[in-house]
User: What shape does this take?
Amino acid sequence: MVIQINKLTKKYGDLTAVDNLDLHIRKKEVFALLGPNGAGKTTTIRMLTMLTIPTGGKALINAQDVTSNKVKKEIGVVPQHMNLDLELTAWENLELHGRLHNMPRDKLKARINELLTFVEINPRAFELASNFSGGMKRRLMIARALMHYPSILFLDEPTAGLDPQTRRKIWDLIRRLNAAGLTVLMTTHYIEEAQILCHRVGIMDKGRLIALGTPQELMEKVGEVVVEFFGGTDTGYKFFARRQQALEYVSHLKGDFLVREVNLEDVFVEITGRKVGD
Amino acid sequence: MGFYAVFWREMVTLKRTFFKFFASRLVSPLLYLIAFGWGLGRGIKMDGGNYLEYIVPGIIALSAMSTSFNAVGTSLNISRLYNKTLEEYLIAPVTAQAFVLGKVLSGVVRGLIASLIILGLAFIFRAHFNLNGWLFLVIILTCFLFSALGVIAAMTINSHEDMGNFNTFIILPMSFLCGTFFSPNQLPDAVALFIEILPLTHASLCLREIARNGDILPVSLGVLVAYTLVLYAGAVLVMQRVRD
Ligand SMILES: Nc1ncnc2c1ncn2[C@@H]1O[C@H](COP(=O)(O)OP(=O)(O)OP(=O)(O)O)[C@@H](O)[C@H]1O
Ligand SMILES: [Mg+2]
Assistant: This one.
């Protein structure tokens, strides 16, 4: 287990942002935390990366408490919001990170070149980051997080607000990093992203983990086939273990309906009881 | 070595915006010198010297103060509350001590440049004063302690607006009352006593004595050193507790 989270809790006054979270992440796994806005995904990542102090519980990374400075060398962090230094160029953003991690000067240059090539912003290395588009900024943030050769990467909504091409580029980056041995803990609201990219997912709601498993396992839990029916103002969902049962059910339905295979989004809607983004 | 990375970043941006910084640090001392030294103060004698020579050390002190305080305080406050670039330092294996040192040293560099600008102006205005190592020591201490105060303010004040208020209600009054343009003894006793406690007063007194006679005032120097140590320790402490 690379990441061991035991009864991790964060309270802000009366609000419990993360509530007794227990979760173990395996080595070389791509794991996604899903959950509606305010579920506590970011707070969880912030506690694991020591940006926020837990109110209770414990988290270990590579068997070391996350408060230890040794852990900082092991983790790379791409936060949900853009936090590049816009007064610096792309190159300088990476150089600053390398210097903060005490990287030797001779290795620094080669690593920066390598990463700028990896995220395809080499041609604009010496432009201020403030000139970059959202997609380039996100890629630069990923490059920055990788500077010091971390073995675990935290990505908080790495593709939010990006166009479909750029999202796919970022998926490819994540796949390649994982193939090279990185453990990835990410969050996302794009459920197909989790389905495509992740070995396992956890669904959080109101600070708690309410489902955990491979996308396949979770989908099997709710059923193989779903019927969507459009009555009045709402869309209804009904899940079935087999296609035959679904077809039987719709034969009695009036109005429009759709029979299709269950996807991870259905799981999400079914167990959180609301649409993502509500 | 963590402090050097923090300092390096500040020097990169300072280099990039040097002319803007230089020009902005030129304007207010130039106006003070023209309005108070050359215009209003012409013919006024203060302690037997001319008024221009009286206010040059005061202007150095106040400029060192406001430049270092704002260079560190404003940018750090924005970095903590709005840009969130502070997170980049918090996730790095850099101690609070190293971070504060890097930031404070960058404030010292900027404050020192602002002070040198005034020395240059004073030279052009033909003010006479002694330049020696004590002068630079006092300037550096002043920059250091107000940079550290900048860190404390940036880490504890939770809005950009209140940062502005801190400037308006604390930094600005100090810049006029702390022996910069006139002696605090001319103020009512109770006020004068309070002003005597403030670090900028001792910076002005010290710089004026050095400019005039080349001598250091040991008590004032001691007060500055004490403020420097206390504020620096305070800055490290608030930095250690910055995580919510
Ligand atoms: N600094 C803070 N002070 C007070 N409350 C906070 C703070 N940070 C987060 N919260 C609260 O904690 C809860 C969880 O927030 P968090 O940002 O972890 O959610 P999230 O799952 O990342 O949501 P999103 O999908 O919108 O990013 C929310 O109710 C939020 O308002
Ligand atoms: Mg979030």
In short: Chain B touches chain A through 23 residues (CB under 8 Å). Residues A 41-42, 80, 156 surround magnesium ion (ligand 2) (CB under 6 Å). The radius of gyration of chain B is 18 Å.
